[in-house]
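[Amino acid chain]
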Amino acid sequence: MRHKSQVPVFLLFLCTTLNYGQNTSKDQTSETRLPEHFWDRTEFKVGFVGTVFWSNGLSVGTEYLWKESGKTKIRKGNERTNTHQFLFNGNLGFVTNFSSKTDTGVYTNFGLTWRRTNKKGKQFGIELNPLGYYRSFLPETYEVDGDSVDRVFLPGRGFYSPSLSVGIGKQRKGKVRSGSYFNINYSPRFNYNAGILPTFFLQYGFRFNFKNKKQ
């Protein structure tokens, strides 16, 4: 009889030990339940883009939340939770040199963004866009064919132009203007005069979620 009465005590001790081990874990990762509706996962963005001193313009885009997870860390008794997101994104922009108009173009790109957000809403992200296209537009241009001189319609050419961005931002939960961002962007243009033209520019703007009711 004494031996049988010890079994529940052993099981209780085992359960208590496992529970204690889980509570004192330094790192815990959990999946976050995503919004069910398309527009709840979608945000729009608009901002300034350019090299400040050479060419400047505007960009618009959209982001769609694909995956999201939360990672909790316990350091010195304080709990810190970071949210990790993977988002599909697309961008459309226009840049020009307003003084000379010698470097005017439009671009579009599509890819994937990884973004980390801490409990204070501070964000760090990396955006990779392997699908990119840049179309340049030249000033008034003419072509000569024998004795004929004709004006060229929409002079310029297109380039394959992927991009890589690294940046920081700030989240505003429950707001229509749901966040801000500042990125450093590298976007080479391939087959530019039989080579590659590396271009760097800055991006600063805001994200919007029109499903949020608070202003």
